[in-house]
Amino acid sequence: MEKLIILKNVSKDYAGDVALEDINLYINDGEFLTLLGPSGCGKTTMLRLIAGFLMPSSGTIEMNGVDIAKIPPYRREVNTVFQKYALFPHLNVADNIAFGLKIKKRGKAEIEEKVEAMLRLVNLEGYGKRWVEQLSGGQQQRVAIARALINEPKVLLLDEPLGALDLKLRQEMQVELKRMQQQLGITFIYVTHDQEEALTMSDTVVVLKDGVIQQIGRPIDIYNEPKNVFVADFIGESNIVAGIMLDDYKVRLNGINYRCVDAGFGKNVEVDAVVRPEDIKLLPPTNARVTGEVRSVLFMGVHYEILVAAGDYEWVVHSTDAAEAGDTVGISIPKDAIHIMKKTRSNNIFDCEVYPEDNEVYIDDVAFDCVNTTGFATKEQALVQIAPADVQLVAPQDAKLTGFAKASIFLGTHYEVTVACEENDWIAFTEDFIEDGEEVGILVDADKLFLAHNEAEE
After folding, report:
1. Rg, Å, the chain Cα set
2. Of 234, 239, 373, which is closest to residue 315 (Cα–Cα)?
């Protein structure tokens, strides 16, 4: 597809208040693209920049290879449909639709022909002589769209145009808008905070937060493979669980090891996992490795929304099977239902070997004293978790385990230092700057190592 509009390093601020920050985005010719995000995320600002109602603070906006920043709105090949339809109450439907062509002084026959074509397109044949106040909200919206389209723009900009309609009418108009866009083959840029609208109509969805693009992709990819916690939480309902990526295709969630379909995150790395409620299966407790207590049940029309407390997490489950509060149920999560996202590392998590008779664990082939070995067998393979603040960086001669500093990042009150050892990269917090490549020793107090069993996999 040909790129029609390109935003390069576009920013917009209002007296220092940043609305958009360093936006890079291209929009294809004939594409239905939706800008999605909460109120104040910058989506309407971006639409107004493309329309020409605002000027960017920095960056360029190109259309067909031409910088349109200095081209006034009325000379851009775009038209805008607003949430408030702004129809002229003193004109009938046909005259509202024809307004733009009359301004351009087109001939009467041409105007009448195009108005009739627009009425057919928006399914309002026979409504030309009616007054605006005689129309329903959905019909008024169709008139506003027809008035914008009759000027044959290359791009139609729609700023939350269905926000004033009731649910059923809004759903009907979603189908109609997609039909019109496909029939005309022109580019639609649609602004909404409604996830269903974005997923239903769009070829491409751009998710924004605080003026920054969080993710761009097809609706199915945005839903199934969110890039971060914000996208996962904003698009549909989600169970977002802190986890540990044990290895490729293997993750630990809520104390249980699961198979998954993701790889490339590293070994024993903290991650966030997204599990959609409809992907969790309810089982009889006798048939399940994971069981929990039903806390609440809501009938949602086509399914039940069931809250299941299992361990330290309350899972939201969507199921066509009913349950009662207080029931014990089993839950199963298929491996392809677990979607892994990167997470800022906050703990050191390593494989270790436990020797409870000596109160020791071996990490990187070095013995560390540990007082938390109760319940572990000799030579048992386990996971050990150590907070960066509990890792002491000392002179190499003062420690059994040594490594070389890979990076030191100042975080305002302390440095975060990454130390490469035999098998693992350790994260430590320290007040002292450590040069890259400098050799350091690592110490950890015996009560600062916390162990977890490596359980069987589902």
Report:
1. 29
2. 239
What are 349-392's pLDDT values in tens digits? 999 999 999 999 999 999 999 999 999 999 999 999 999 999 99
Q: Which residues contact 168 (CB under 8 A, 6 or more apart)?
A: none
User: Quick check: 419 and 442 in contact, CB under 8 A?
Assistant: yes
Tally of CB atoms within 10 A around 157: 26
Quote the CA–CA distance of 194 and 94 in Å, as a whole number: 31
Helix runs in 43-136, H state only:
43-51, 93-103, 108-121
Phi-psi region of 59 (alpha: psi -120 to 50; beta: other; left: phi over 0): left
- Residue type present at position 150: I
Are 156 and 144 a contacting pair, CB within 8 Å?
no
Residues 215 and 207 sit within 8 Å (Cβ to Cβ): yes
Q: Are 361 and 326 contacting, i.e. CB atoms less than 8 angstroms apart? A: no
Q: Considering only CA atoms, which of 449, 445, 444 is closest in space to residue 419?
A: 444
Q: Please give the single-letter amino acid code of residue 99.
A: F
For residue 163, with 0-12 CB atoms within 10 Å meaning exposed, 13-18 middle and 19 or more buried, which class applies? Answer: middle
On whether the CB atoms of residues 191 and 40 are closer than 8 A, the answer is no
Residue 231, CA distances (Å) to 103, 219, 221, 226, 453 in order:
44, 12, 11, 6, 32
**Taking every pair of C-alpha atoms in the chain, what is the biggest distance, in angstroms?**
97
User: What DSSP designation does 311 have?
Assistant: T
Contact partners, residue 423, CB within 8 Å, separation at least 6: 350, 364
- At residue 433, the pLDDT reads 86
- In three-state form (DSSP H/G/I as H, E/B as E, the rest C), the secondary structure along 333-383 is CCHHHEEEEECCCCCEEEEEEEEHHHCEEEECCEEEECCCCCCCCCCEEEE
Q: How would you classify the pairing of strands 204-209 and 32-36?
A: parallel
* Spatial separation of the C-alpha atoms in residues 100 and 294, rounded to whole Å: 60
Comparing 172-186, 264-278, 321-335, 354-368, the range with the smallest average pLDDT is 172-186
- Name the CA dihedral angle for 183, 184, 185, 186, rounded to a multiple of 10 degrees: -150
Name the DSSP class of 54: S
Q: What angle do CA 441, 446, 447 make, to 5 degrees?
A: 130
In this prediction, residues 144-163 reach a mean pLDDT of 86
Q: Alpha helix locations (H) across 206-323?
A: 219-224, 229-234
